[in-house]
Amino acid sequence: SSVEMLEAYRALELQRATLVATAKMSTLGEMASGIAHEINTPLAVISTLAAQLSELLDDSPIDKNTLKGHTQKIEHTVFRIGKIISGLRSFSRNANSDPFVDVRVKELFDDVASLCKERFLLNGVTLTAICKSELLNLKGRPSQLAQAILNLLNNAFDAISERSEKWITLEAKQTDQDTEIIITDSGLGIDEQVREKLFQPFFTTKEIGKGTGIGLSISRNILKAHNGDLILNTDCKNTQFILRIPK
Question: Is residue 164 predicted with pLDDT exceeding 80?
Answer without folding.
Answer: yes
